[in-house]
């Protein structure tokens, strides 16, 4: 179990000190421990002191090729700010007792177990592309794509509206949000990266509409 952001486990989730789990402490921006052979069963993010940094780390963790379960520890005041888009498995108050923490750890590690029908409802399929909204993974003809969080969000949004053309400004507000201060060139950069990852056989799925913007054209034949 990793606890990024905490100087001591007791500062993030005091009840952890009363449980038998093996705990390692790391800075919030140290994700290297998640890619090595000693991959943890669970990451406990300390959001009690810097919730924005904890959120950013959670988003980065959700974009990994093999996401690990994330339990976010917050104060009561920070609880209202947590959103589903952060990609955490569960949230727990830093004042939670050992029994509650143990239960949340156990359930987070086990992960959701949807039925076949429920799992299918959370998968967007558009042509050869399948997007799993639960695991934040994308497959192209069965092959997993390594996408960043924003690349995933952009592809998901386009695939949810097959055939509809969006301007760069619309994509910027829908995917990056109204509080993003970057220019529309950001959209072009991410589209270019998405096409590169789709590969030459499938890059045509994202079409450019001259002087307007971009569209997702599932089922469209590649240009001759």
From TrEMBL:
Q: Where is the OmpR/PhoB-type domain?
A: 121-218
Keyword terms of this UniProt record: Activator, DNA-binding, Phosphoprotein, Transcription, Transcription regulation, Two-component regulatory system
Q: Which GO terms describe its cellular component?
A: cytosol; protein-DNA complex
Q: What are the recorded GO MF terms, alphabetically?
A: phosphorelay response regulator activity; transcription cis-regulatory region binding
Q: Which residues bind DNA?
A: 121-218
Question: Cross-referenced InterPro entries, in alphabetical order?
Answer: GlnR_N, OmpR/PhoB-type_DNA-bd, Sig_transdc_resp-reg_C-effctor, WalR-like, WH-like_DNA-bd_sf
Q: Which GO biological process annotations does it have?
A: regulation of DNA-templated transcription
Know the name of this protein?
DNA-binding response regulator
């Amino acid at each position: 179990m990793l606890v990024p952001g905490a100087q001591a486990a007791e500062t993030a989730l005091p009840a952890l000190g009363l449980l038998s789990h093996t705990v390692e402490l790391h800075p919030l921006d140290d994700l290297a421990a998640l890619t090595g052979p000693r991959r943890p069963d669970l990451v406990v993010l300390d959001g009690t002191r810097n919730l924005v940094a904890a959120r950013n780390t959670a988003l980065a963790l959700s974009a990994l090729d093999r996401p690990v379960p994330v339990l976010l520890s917050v104060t009561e005041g920070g609880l209202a700010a947590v959103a589903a888009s952060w990609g955490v498995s569960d949230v727990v108050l830093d004042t939670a007792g050992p029994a509650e923490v143990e239960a949340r750890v156990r359930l987070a590690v086990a992960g959701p177990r949807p039925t076949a029908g429920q799992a299918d409802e959370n998968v967007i399929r558009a042509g050869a592309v399948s997007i799993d909204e639960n695991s934040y993974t994308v497959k192209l003809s069965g092959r997993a794509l390594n996408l960043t969080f924003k690349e995933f969000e952009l592809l998901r949004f386009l695939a949810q509206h097959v055939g509809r053309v969006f301007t760069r400004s619309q994509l910027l507000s829908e995917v990056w949000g109204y509080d993003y201060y970057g220019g529309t060139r950001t959209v072009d950069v991410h589209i270019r990266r998405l096409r590169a990852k789709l590969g030459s056989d499938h890059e045509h799925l994202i079409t450019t509409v001259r002087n307007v913007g971009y569209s997702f054209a599932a089922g469209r034949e590649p240009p001759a």
